Amino acid sequence: MILDFEKPINDLEKKLETVQKTYEKHPDPERKIEMKNLEKQIKRLKIEIHNHLTPWQRVQLARHPARPYFLDYVKLIFHNFIEIHGDRTFKDDKSVVTGWADLDNQSVMLIGQQKGRTVEENLMRNFGSMHPEGYRKALRVMKMAEKFSKPIITFIDTQGAYPGIGAEERGQAEAIARNLKEMSSLKVPVITVVIGEGGSGGALGIGVANKVLMLENSTYSVISPEGCASILWRDATRAPEAAKALKLTAQDLYYFGVIDLIIDEPLGGAHTDHLMTANSIKKEIKNTLAKLNKLSSKSLVSQRYHKYRTLGEYIEKNQIKTSRKKITKK
Amino acid sequence: MKKWYERTDEKRIPEKSKAKKMPEGLWSKCPSCGKVIYQEQLIDNQYTCMECDHHFRIGAKERIEITFDDKSFKEMDTRITSLNPLEFTDNITSYDKRLSQAMKKTNLTEAVVTGTGKIYGIHVACAILDFNFFGGSMGSVVGEKITRVVEKAIKNKIPLVIISMSGGARMQEGIFSLMQMAKTSAALALLSEKRVPYISILADPTTGGVSASFSMLGDINIAEPKALIGFAGPRVIEQTIKQKLPPGFQRSEFLLEHGMVDIVVHRKALKATVAQLLRYMT
Ligand SMILES: [Zn+2]
User: Fold this and answer.
1) For residue B259, which residues of chain A lie inside 8 Å, CB to CB?
2) In Å, how far is A88's CA from the nearest CA of chain B?
3) Reduced to 3 states, what is the DSSP secondary structure of residue B51?
4) CA distance, residue A19 to nearest chain B CA (Å)
5) Does residue B268 register a pLDDT over 90?
6) B28 C-alpha to ligand 1 centroid (Å)
């Protein structure tokens, strides 16, 4: 799939390919120069587009069907993954995958929301939208990690918790609420990486962490742009406007003090180079974990509590209280 | 035979509302059965229909009057108000402007009133959401005030009661609203650790980010009859599954049936039930 704003790049890339093929048949120096120029042009255009992505374009990148998903990262970052299934109460919710893995020489518990690439996969994964049993499975393995003093790394990639009859019957609200409460007092390091869509409470339900990292073109929001546009203007097609109003990009959230680190993506987005993206994520997880490993369980709990305790912005007795970072924009 | 909660002990039940003279001729029509009810009767009946038991949606002020012992409620954190951190606008009216309109309309400073008060002599910390202010939605201020009242309960070692009526997280404050879910739930984890009781009362409606955080986390979750309680709104569910929802879906009795709330209690029995539960839990 080629996104609208990727088209000019794609056109140039196709042109380059044609020239390359001609060159292979008839190696003439002029073609060589043409190729060099095209490569330069492509790079320049990529930088140009990349530096001026609108919030809506980032939403599209975050949802890109070729974007790496949780299980892609499991393969590219970790070793010896053993999946753990089920909430021991109702069933195994396959929209979230959990299990033990090695991160080089440290064992960790992984929890990740998993979208599918094919129709069959998406049916099985429910498009990465969790049911209550998914949140309960996640909590079960978090408690297991805590029991054996192992860090927890969660990967967020969901449109949101599933809105359905069964989900309500089995207490979607309770399941999410309980995870928020229980995650806040886990005695082991918790790191969350937003890799695609951070869809509201459904994302936060596995996202109460000591450190929250976000891929450059991922999003995190209280409501989807389409949902917001429907409420404001009764018109979901105005989602691009809503995306801007919601301030849902990694850059906005870093500035608000909600996330701790932005992980750079390859030029053109994560989908253009899975391995390079995975390596960047791995590097930042390892850096973050190295710091958290030094903290006692007590400090981990209080650090996490403090992080959420201070989030917000309001005015009290004529004084503005805010979690916003006092950074000067580049 | 009288039910145990229908006490007639004058000292225990403040009949403040009875003393208040309402202007003649004010009346409401029950939205459920159509019965015409005079305001005075409605207040006497704690804003429920005497014909069909419909529970009217009531504001924080009315809630305080029917819940706390006479003049025992002391409001706290009255000078916290919302900002517009996202500079949010629907392209017609900015969020700031809508906030001042809501303040004027409701005579409230935000969608929650917090404080301490007495319920049949038991000192409690309490938060009451008000649906009239931005649909009772939770932004930075609601999250902060709820968290502070939880901290108050911890500090003073007094039980916590939260009465919810809310459409969920406040869209206009974006990610800040979402994070209040984590903030309030984390505070409740501390409360739980200190073994301070928390009773959550869910009134019509309680959905979204409020049901998916503090209001589902009571030691005891009490629902008022027929209240809409759920995570997703019914319309969103219908659009997703492309089916009509069964009658009674996401109502209190449905949640009771599915084990998500502990008791469904008529508003007129609410205060006595809370007091009795607190006696068991303290
Ligand atoms: Zn009626």
Assistant:
1) 171
2) 17
3) coil
4) 48
5) yes
6) 10
Nearest to A168 among B174, B181, B232 (CB): B232
Whether residue A165 and residue B180 make contact (CB cut-off 8 A), yes or no, is: no
Q: Is B143 on the interface with A (CB under 8 A)?
A: yes
User: How far is ligand 1, taken at its centre, from the CA of residue B271, in Å?
Assistant: 22
Average pLDDT over residues B251-270: 98
**DSSP tag of B172:** G
Q: Is the preceding omega at residue A68 within 30 degrees of 0, hence cis?
A: no
- Chain B segment 144-163 residues within 8 A of A by beta carbon are 144, 147
Q: What is the pLDDT of residues A110-160, one digit of tens each?
A: 999 999 999 999 999 999 999 999 999 999 999 999 999 999 999 999 999
pLDDT of B23 reads 53
CB contact under 8 A, A165 and B217: no
The alpha carbon of residue A187 is apart from the nearest alpha carbon of chain B, in Å, by: 13
Interface test with A, best of B179, B191, B214, B221 (most A CBs within 10 A): B179
Q: Is the pLDDT of residue B237 over 60?
A: yes
Report CA-CA distances (Å) from B20 to A290, B43, B260: 65, 10, 38
- Residue A328: predicted pLDDT: 57
3-state SS string over chain A?
A: CCCHHHHHHHHHHHHHHHHHHHHHHCCCHHHHHHHHHHHHHHHHHHHHHHHCCCHHHHHHHHCCCCCCCHHHHHHHHCEEEEEECCCCCCCCCCCEEEEEEEECCEEEEEEEECCCCCHHHHHHHHHHCCCHHHHHHHHHHHHHHHHCCCCEEEEEEECCCCCCHHHHHCCHHHHHHHHHHHHHCCCCCEEEEEEEEEEHHHHHCCCCCCEEEEECCCEEECCCHHHHHHHHHCCHHHHHHHHHHHCCEHHHHHHHCCCCEEECCCCCCHHHCHHHHHHHHHHHHHHHHHHHHCCCHHHHHHHHHHHHHCCCEEEECCEEEECCCCCCCC
**Interface A-B: count of C-beta contacts within 8 A:** 194
What are residue A194's phi and psi, to 5 degrees?
Answer: -85, 115
Note the pLDDT of residue A137. Answer: 98
pLDDT at B7 over 60: no
Whether the pLDDT of residue B109 is over 80: the answer is yes
pLDDT at B33: 95
pTM metric for this prediction: 0.94
Q: Quote the ligand 1 centre to B62 CA distance (angstroms).
A: 19
CATH code of the domain made up of B57-281: 3.90.226.10
Question: What pLDDT score was predicted for residue B8?
Answer: 41
- Within 8 A of B162 by CB-CB distance, chain A residues are none
Mean pLDDT of chain A: 96
Per-residue pLDDT, A327 = 66
Q: Give residues 179 to 208 of B whose Cβ lies within 8 Å of A.
A: 179-183, 185-190, 192-193, 207-208
Domain extent listing, chain B: 25-56, 57-281
- The sign one gets for the Cα dihedral A255, A256, A261, A262 is negative
